[in-house]
Amino acid sequence: MVGRSEEQRFISDAIADPARPGVLVAGRPGVGKTRLIHEVLRTTHGHHYERITASESVRPLPFGAFAQLLPSNLDEVDQVDLLSVLGQQLRNRAEGRPTVLAVDDVHLLDGLSAGFIDYLAARGLATVLLTLRSGSPIPDALSRLCRSGDIPRLELQALSRSEFDEMLERALDGIIDNVSLERMWEATRGNVLFARELIADVLEAGELRQLHGVWRWAGGVGRAPRLQEAIAARLDGLQEPGRRFLEVLSVGEPLSLATAEQFAADDVLIELERRGLIVVGGEEAPSIRFSHPLFGEVLRADMPSLLHRHINQQLAHLLRRETARAPADVLKLAVLWQGSGETVDPTILAEAAQIANRLSDHPLAEKLATDSLQQKTTFAAQLELAWSLLSQHRFEAAAELLPPLIGNEPDDDAREHLADALLQATGLGLGRVDDALALMAEIERSAVGLTTRVLIRCHRATLHTFVSQYEEAIELGMSAIRAADDDRVFVRTLTSVASSLTMIGKTDEALSLTEAGLACALRVREELPRAPNWAVSSRCTALAFGGRVPEALELLDFALSSSGQPPEQRTVANVYRARFLLLEGKAGSAARSLKEAALGLRAEPSYGSWCFALLAEAEALLGHQDAAAAARSESLALRANERLTVFVDERRALAWVDAQEGRLTDAMAELWAAADMALERSQRCFELIILNDLLRLGESGAAARTQQLCGVVEGLFGRAVSLHAQAVVSKRGMDLERAASSFATIGLSLMASELWAAASAAYGRERLQARSTKAAKKSYENADLCEGAKTRPAAWPDQVEPLSRRQREVAVLAAQGATNVEIAHALSLSVRTVESHLYAAFAKLGLTARDELSTALAGPRD
Which of 231, 522, 658, 796 has its CA 20 to 30 A from that of 450? Predict the structure, then answer.
């Protein structure tokens, strides 16, 4: 009963109050009126319940709905006494308990049944809970009670999108990926009844499956018996002409009004609209759709194949007569024509494949382009086939199709589109960067127009950024901006120039460059559909690594919530979203985003290994060691190209798995190696993050290098890290507090919590108890924002008495309950060496028993 708590409370209060005769719950079909009342009755005790369901079949019968209460000697009862006799029957069944009468669909009651309900409510013989379909008339016998307000009307609204998502995830007891949630929302329009039947059907058919802990539905209803039964009730009593038109509409939706009138008379269309089965929209060009998308799905699934083919033929012939077609009509024509079994014009198929690719329906684009090529080999069809394949992560197959097209481009637009495909398939997809750069340079040289040459140069710059060649990317991108004063060029350079500036630490310049990016992208999105995503990703990266993580997440969430977001772009965006959440310390939300993204990235060599590395980090921070180990294994298995920009961050993330398992020596060694690699690649922003992680793990030796780097990297994050480095060196409570406050101010709660804990310990050592207590409270407050994420207290023992790195590792594992033999095995030490380290740690920490370690190491956060 997600989202219905207030309604439940309202009805429960009516039952509990003898002075209130009842409640009328109204709403559209399927919003959950009956379910709501049944749930209230299930949780209400000490009452006698009668449940009545009115229907068309019993409506003609007097007291038809109350047949269960009619006495066997009804023919002997005087008509004047009938209501009192029925009331006595109800009291006898209640056996002295207060009575609740629940009546479903009161608009279908006969007059006498409605009069009996009025009799019970008016005399206080029962609390009546009634449901009514919105738009239906209330029976005359009940209208007085409803109009007077004695029985208040509760209008039950459909669930909001967030409530709908929560309901589905509770029903399935797990995470559902966002694309599947979007499909279910679009299919059911939030209708609870349809959602319940749909889930039951697709689960039974194996079309809704849990993959790697995430539920996924590919779409499509197929034969769905429960759903068909639910929808059949809405089609009851429909005459043949109406049903025939709905079958046509299910194949060709939407239909223009002119087309619809060729299949059905006006009175048929009016009756279908009156019954709420179709809606007419659009003033200038009226069109007809189903009032609910599942009507069409169910009718198609139940349609004989020959009838389906015949309707395809009829609709295709009508569309072929039209001379001017919108892109949507071209795609519809190609699909209907294919479904008719006739030979389709290959030019139409190739054009439709391009439209399908732009709409992110890549399997359909693949089918259309393949059918076109089987009839005639053309540049357009082969290029669209390559795009459909690379968009489904089949990069090898796509890359084979592209080089033969070079030199055969019909125009400059085709050259730019081909260069973009090479970037995606050969460069980003397969990691064959040098091959892709050479092929793109060849296409650039053959381009006629300046703008096309410059756009291809932008593609090359993007590839240089992808493999951490930032100076080359910035030079190419800026030369493109200088060469052509064109919005398309400016937007296209954002992914290379702004991202490169961010990586080398010039986040202020990157933010300045991306300031106008989104507005510019919206101006050219018709020509460059991916432009808004380029602008958003560039801006979000600059914001996040500049220390403005909440702003980055707000912008990214806004972009993800917008309709029409292609699935492949949503997948990568979810990885970046998780990366930003990890900076905030929100490991639970990060893990959810990463699990969803992982469904689409297991075959993606560019981002797949990074995604699983971040997932391993999130699970490790949550204390899920087995899940972290599994994600790390997947990351290592997917690792394909160490030249990629994100490889350094991938190494950093996996180091946290070691750290959380107590292998601090291994973790620090990996972080130092990652920091050196970042320096070698000029990834100063990543280098700073890694050095800060070393400081968090107690590596004071990283402080000097960190301080030096903070003078290079611009932004709020660099300033916070600088304070952190100063505090690690001084170990003073005041310095640690300043660093903690700085991280808290920019929303990085986990780091702030760690530093407040360290400040509390330092103040305690300085005998400033009030400040120590206040800092501990701040640590708790920030930890509460981190969704259960918790780092090993590596730095806190140093605030009491410095432990060596090995002593700290041994102490942490012992505090977790590991035996000396287990510690020796985990750290590749002898048992005698473990005993020696524990003895030294006990002496430094002032402990005498092993069970005191947990408290000593936990610091104020525990």
Answer: 522
Mean pLDDT of 141-167: 81
Task: Give the integer Cα–Cα distance in Å for 834 and 827.
Answer: 9
Residue among 718, 733, 663, 665 nearest 687 (CA):
718
Task: Give the model's pLDDT for residue 856.
Answer: 66
Question: Is pLDDT larger for residue 740 or for residue 604?
Answer: 740
Give the span between the Cα atoms of 307 and 291, in whole angstroms.
Answer: 23
What's residue 75's pLDDT? 66
pLDDT at 842 over 90: no
DSSP state of 344: P
Is 798 a residue whose pLDDT tops 60? no
Residue 431 Cα to chain centre, angstroms: 28
Phi, psi torsion values for 683, nearest 5 degrees: -90, 70
pLDDT value for 611: 94
| pLDDT tens column, 297-312 | 888 888 899 999 999 9
Beta strands in 457-563 (DSSP E): none
* Average pLDDT value for residue range 349-376: 94
Please give the pLDDT value at position 861: 43
Give the pLDDT confidence score for residue 369 in this predicted structure.
97
471 touches 511 (CB < 8 A) = no
CA angle 112, 114, 118 (to 5 degrees): 110
The answer on pLDDT for 691 being more than 90 is yes
How sure is the predictor about 3, in pLDDT bands with cuts at 50, 70 and 90?
A: low
What length is written for the chain? 862
Greatest C-alpha distance within the chain: 103
Report whether pLDDT(743) > 50.
yes
From the list 750, 747, 755, the residue with the least C-alpha distance to 726 is 755
| Residue labelled with tokens 């309901």 | 167
What phi and psi values does residue 93 have, to the nearest 5 degrees? -70, -30
Higher pLDDT, 232 or 721: 721
Cβ burial of 240 (10 Å; 0-12, 13-18, 19+) is: exposed
Asked if 34 and 198 touch (Cβ cutoff 8 Å), the reply is: no
What are 862's two structure tokens?
Answer: 């525990």
Helix (H) or strand (E) holding 287: strand 287-290
Instruction: Please give the order of strands across the beta sheet that includes 48-53.
Output: 48-53, 99-104, 127-133, 22-27, 153-155
User: Residue type for 456, please?
Assistant: I
Q: Report yes or no: 192 and 31 within 8 Å, Cβ to Cβ.
A: yes
Confirm if 21 and 129 have CB atoms less than 8 A apart.
Answer: no
- Non-local CB neighbours of 756 within 8 Å, separated by 6+ positions: 736, 737, 740, 744, 775, 776, 778, 779, 782, 860
Three-class SS state of 95: coil
Give Cα 330 distance to the centre of its chain.
Answer: 31
Of residues 197, 194, 172, the one with CA closest to residue 185: 194
Crossing angle of helices 625-638 and 647-660, rounded to 10°: 150
Cα–Cα distance between 742 and 675 in angstroms, integer? 23
Determine the straight-line distance between the first and last CA of the chain, rounded to whole angstroms. 36
On whether the CB atoms of residues 80 and 116 are closer than 8 A, the answer is no
As given in the structure block, the two tokens for residue 578 are: 């998780």
Q: Work out the average pLDDT over 520-527.
A: 85
> CB-based burial of residue 77 (10 Å sphere; 0-12 exposed, 13-18 middle, 19+ buried)?
middle
The reported pLDDT for the residue numbered 862 is 40
Phi, psi of 557 (to 5 degrees): -65, -35
Give the model's pLDDT for residue 533: 85
* Distinct helix (H) and strand (E) counts, the chain: 46, 11
375: phi then psi, degrees, rounded to nearest 5:
-90, -40
CB 91 within 8 A of CB 126: no
Name residue, tokens 């104020």. 860
Residue with tokens 């991280």: 743
Phi, psi of 126 (to 5 degrees): -160, 150
Token readout for 609 is 């290994």
